[in-house]
Every structure is written in C-alpha cells, then in structure tokens.
C-alpha cells in the first residue's frame, strides 16, 4: 500500500492564492497544534503556524460520488508526504473511515468501514483483494474530512 498526499502542483497553486473547489479564496488561520492535519506533508501543522482552510474535492470532475469538504494545508511550502509507512496524520485520531473506489471514481459498496490506526494496514490489504477497488480514501470518522488516498503498491 502507498499513502498518497495531495499533488504538490495543486497545493502550490493554493498556497500561492489559488481558489478552492468552490472557486473561493482559501481562508488563513493560525494552527492551534491539535487536529490540523496538512494533506500535503501529512503531518499536523505546528501550533502558531499559518494554515489554509479550504474546500477540496479529491476527484478530477464533479459527479454524484465526488464528495467535497474542508481540509487544512500548511500556508507555507512544505514537502509532500506519503510512502508505505502510516503517516503522522493517521496516528492521532482513535479511528478513520476508509472507502474503496473503482476506476470510474465510484464507491465500491461494502468497502466503507471505520477502523483504528492499528487496523488500517490489515483492512487496506483486505479491501485490495477486491479487484474492483482501484484506490481507497481515508476520511475523518468524526467529520468526514478527506485525509489522503491509499494506492495499490
């Protein structure tokens, strides 16, 4: 499994004044250090640092399954996170919602489940046994905010 952060090109556009999924300017706020996961570096934005709050749609185009919601980003440039190890943003909540999607960006029904951080690797391996699943989204189990994408190895 590979944890995939938002693409750097898209994040740099937002950090440089680009607009969000609703064509609105990103809001700027100060991180309180808790619960502010950057979807690019995949770490929590340190307390006192500027951050962006914006609407994000993790799909190329609008369609029935293309959920849009709030996310945080570091306001200044950060290094893209990701890889095969559980990223820091998936270690601080008691649980997360995982859902598998097919190549047409539709939810593969039966794959949505709330799991603890420790259960993520095993559940991802199980979901990827279904050949219809092209990738998995991880969302907040409390607020349904998009966290990151998990791709096949």
From TrEMBL:
InterPro entries, per the entry: DUF1203
Stored Pfam families: DUF1203
Full protein name: DUF1203 domain-containing protein
